[in-house]
């Protein structure tokens, strides 16, 4: 379906060449010249190791009907007779095209940030919204200054609700993403420790996440983790809904019951069951519920949306080994907060033997030791075996709570770790794997599943 035309681009970027003045329809906007596009606008991005202006001919072969071009790249071969729009910076121009398209189509926008739980909450919100609206959501984890505009531009023109994940590692980034998206609903899922090396403290992280208010529509609504004291000072002129376990919240989670495959609880006076495990997931659900109430979707519809929930792998994914032991693959990423949250879920699950396998949490800079020690202090006598792997995770072992009486060992060899798990697992065991993605725990899990 037509999304834009070269005439729209001409308004945004008057400097042009080729047949830019012809009214050429654009069905999609793409940045990877290898992608087969249909009536595509090619936006060449300059990366650290490549400059996509070099691939313009490939992009044309693959279906580009127009392209943006950086004014700093005029020395590169520019195709003749092909519509080109000259811009200062192609990433900023991509953001401008996304802003323009979002303004033209004017969907209800739901923006989601937070240290942990963004993708999960995005999926929960999108499933609920799909009960009533035509929804487009961030695909996968495309949540940064390039991914977010691409997500906006991926929406079909008849989209009614756009659900966007917003990620960041520095101050200023969420502000930019929020201004591009102009959310009607802005959600902060939680404040953890990710990127603390750039942001200084958890208070700095809370401040950076709160930049999501910069683009919130005047009549928009702010939905937050109400149990987090660092979010308590939200501006008084912004309509705010708080969610959490504390009974002063607008949406209060109570009667929490952890099952083996699902979790049930009350949210104010309605009861729900979700196919996700852990107290943090009940909270993520509460954000989706609050959004649903605000946009006129009923409790029963929200419950029925849980059947359509489509969650990506490696996020507390429940698997089974050949011999029948339960494996939880939660090794998509990690922070101290999310490690503790996952261990907490396993602690409450009804398994005879609980084996926890933790790897390094990366990118913590000078906070690394302290954050790993926080996790160690959380391991108590409800855990039977604790294995750690890598370098930094040694600090987990050094800070174990006094009442941990199980078996523990630190490994630097994958083979030895796999050997130890195999030796000690039984069919009534649950084995939790959690580490930063760089530790490649999926390879270890693959070996264990064969056992
Ligand atoms: P990324 O920054 O990589 O995009 P994300 O914010 O999208 O991460 P998810 O992928 O949804 O987060 O979840 C990652 C992990 O964070 C989960 O596996 C879980 O362990 C933990 N988690 C999810 N929600 C919360 C929450 N509300 N509070 C604390 N931890 C959470
Ligand atoms: Mg994510």
From TrEMBL:
One of its GO terms (molecular function) is UDP-N-acetylmuramoylalanyl-D-glutamyl-2,6-diaminopimelate-D-alanyl-D-alanine ligase activity. The keyword Cytoplasm applies. Residues 112-291 form the Mur ligase central domain. The keyword ATP-binding applies. Keywords: ATP-binding, Cell cycle, Cell division, Cell shape, Cell wall biogenesis/degradation, Cytoplasm, Ligase, Nucleotide-binding, Peptidoglycan synthesis. InterPro entries: Mur-like_cat_sf, Mur_ligase_C, Mur_ligase_C_dom_sf, Mur_ligase_cen, MurCDEF_CellWall_CoF430Synth, MurE/MurF_N, UDP-N-AcMur_synth. It catalyses: D-alanyl-D-alanine + UDP-N-acetyl-alpha-D-muramoyl-L-alanyl-gamma-D-glutamyl-meso-2,6-diaminopimelate + ATP = UDP-N-acetyl-alpha-D-muramoyl-L-alanyl-gamma-D-glutamyl-meso-2,6-diaminopimeloyl-D-alanyl-D-alanine + ADP + phosphate + H(+). Pfam families: Mur_ligase_C, Mur_ligase_M. Belongs to the MurCDEF family. MurF subfamily. Involved in cell wall formation. Catalyzes the final step in the synthesis of UDP-N-acetylmuramoyl-pentapeptide, the precursor of murein. This is UDP-N-acetylmuramoyl-tripeptide--D-alanyl-D-alanine ligase. It comes from Halalkalibacillus sediminis. The lineage of its organism: Bacteria, Bacillati, Bacillota, Bacilli, Bacillales.
């Amino acid at each position: 379906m037509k999304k834009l035309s070269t005439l729209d681009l001409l308004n945004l970027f008057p400097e042009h060449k080729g047949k830019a003045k012809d009214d050429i329809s654009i069905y999609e906007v793409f940045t990877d010249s290898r992608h087969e596009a249909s009536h595509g606008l090619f936006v060449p991005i300059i990366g650290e190791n490549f400059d996509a202006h070099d691939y313009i001919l490939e992009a044309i072969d693959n279906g580009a009907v127009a392209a943006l071009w950086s004014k700093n790249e005029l020395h590169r071969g520019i195709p003749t007779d092909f519509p080109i729009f000259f811009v200062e910076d192609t990433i900023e121009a991509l953001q401008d095209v996304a802003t323009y398209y979002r303004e033209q189509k004017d969907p209800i926008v739901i923006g989601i940030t937070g240290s942990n739980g963004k993708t999960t909450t995005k999926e929960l919100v999108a499933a609920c919204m799909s009960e009533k609206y035509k929804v487009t959501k961030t695909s996968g984890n495309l949540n940064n200054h390039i991914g977010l505009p691409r997500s906006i531009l991926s929406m079909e023109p008849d989209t009614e609700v756009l659900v966007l994940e917003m990620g960041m590692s520095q101050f200023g980034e969420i502000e930019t993403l929020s201004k591009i998206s102009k959310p009607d609903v802005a959600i902060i899922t939680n404040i953890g420790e990710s990127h603390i090396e750039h942001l200084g403290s958890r208070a700095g992280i809370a401040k950076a996440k709160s930049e999501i208010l910069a683009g919130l529509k005047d009549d928009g609504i702010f939905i937050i983790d109400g149990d987090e004291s660092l979010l308590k000072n939200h501006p008084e002129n912004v309509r705010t809904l708080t969610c959490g376990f504390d009974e002063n919240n607008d949406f209060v989670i109570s009667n929490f019951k952890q099952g083996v495959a699902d979790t049930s609880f009350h949210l104010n006076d309605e009861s729900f069951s979700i196919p996700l495990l852990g107290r943090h997931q009940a909270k993520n659900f509460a954000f989706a519920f609050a959004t649903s109430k605000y946009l006129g979707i009923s409790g029963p519809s929200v419950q029925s949306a849980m059947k359509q929930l489509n969650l990506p792998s490696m996020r507390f994914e429940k698997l089974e080994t050949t011999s029948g032991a339960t494996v939880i693959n939660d090794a998509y990423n990690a922070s101290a907060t999310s490690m503790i949250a996952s261990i907490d879920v396993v602690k409450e699950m009804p398994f005879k033997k609980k084996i926890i396998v933790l790897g390094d949490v990366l990118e913590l800079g000078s906070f690394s030791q302290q954050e790993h020690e926080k996790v160690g202090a959380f391991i108590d006598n409800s855990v039977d075996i604790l294995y750690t792997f890598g370098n930094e995770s040694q600090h987990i072992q050094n800070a174990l709570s006094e009442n941990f009486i199980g078996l523990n060992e630190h490994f630097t060899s994958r083979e030895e770790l796999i050997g130890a798990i195999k030796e000690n697992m039984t069919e009534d065991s649950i084995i939790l794997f959690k580490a930063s993605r760089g530790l490649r725990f999926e390879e270890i899990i693959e070996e264990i599943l064969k056992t």
